[in-house]
Design goal:
Blueprint (H helix, E strand, L loop, with lengths): L11 H25 L11 H4 L2 E3 L9 H11 L9 E9 L12 E7 L2 H4 L18 E11 L5 E10 L14 H21 L2
Antiparallel strand pairs: 1-2, 2-3, 3-4, 4-5
């Protein structure tokens, strides 16, 4: 029996569909990304409201390399820094936090440190006559620094700390008696009660 090979015929419609499917997927992806808007920078341990409006951008846009920005951020921390460990670094465009904000549009490196207790300013605000005898128990949630990604200039830094007498002092050489810890816990309770009474 003679076997005859028939050429496979593919319709022009099938070819057109094969080419159009990837184009349609790419187009839909682009539309969804455009609708989502710019990706907002989020740092570990830093509430969004404390960070401000920062839109993530590709690191290739920075004139100042990431490593140099980290070095500049460490130098911007007040006091003598023995150990600054970086948790994360992000490049962002500052969207501005208010009308006329001079930072609006600036390209910034944001350096978030992993050991805020070692880098915090040790100062908690309040009235000048506030009892500061318990400041040994200040612990920090975060410390971050912003560096201009085009000039290398220091822009700002931020930190958040609070008294927490239940934890050991930041300095391992600082000794606290049980009575002193208890006194500071009571002081903290008084401060919280006062803050709650002033909250509308």
């Amino acid at each position: 029996m003679e076997h005859i090979d028939h050429p496979v015929q593919v319709s022009h419609t099938a070819i057109a569909i094969a080419f159009l499917i990837p184009l349609a997927v790419a187009g839909l992806t682009a539309i969804l990304l455009a609708e989502a808007g710019p990706h907002e920078v989020v740092l570990a341990g830093v509430p969004r409201g404390d960070l401000g409006r920062l839109e993530a951008v590709p690191e290739s846009l920075a004139k100042i390399p990431k490593a140099e920005a980290v070095s500049l951020a460490v130098r911007a921390i007040p006091g003598e820094v023995f150990d600054a460990r970086v948790r994360e670094v992000a490049l962002a465009r500052h969207a501005g936090n208010f009308e006329g904000d001079p930072s609006r549009g600036r390209l910034v490196w944001v350096v978030n440190f992993a050991n805020p207790d070692d880098l915090g300013s040790r100062f908690i605000g309040g009235p000048h006559d506030r009892d500061r005898s318990c400041d040994w128990s200040v612990h920090y949630d975060y410390v971050f620094v912003m560096i201009d990604a085009e000039t290398g200039d220091f822009i700002t830094s931020a930190e958040r700390g609070a008294l927490d007498p239940s934890r050991a002092p930041r300095s391992s050489g600082f000794q606290v008696t049980a009575a002193e810890r208890l006194r500071c816990e009571r002081l903290l309770e008084q401060q919280r009660a006062l803050a709650e009474s002033l909250t509308p």
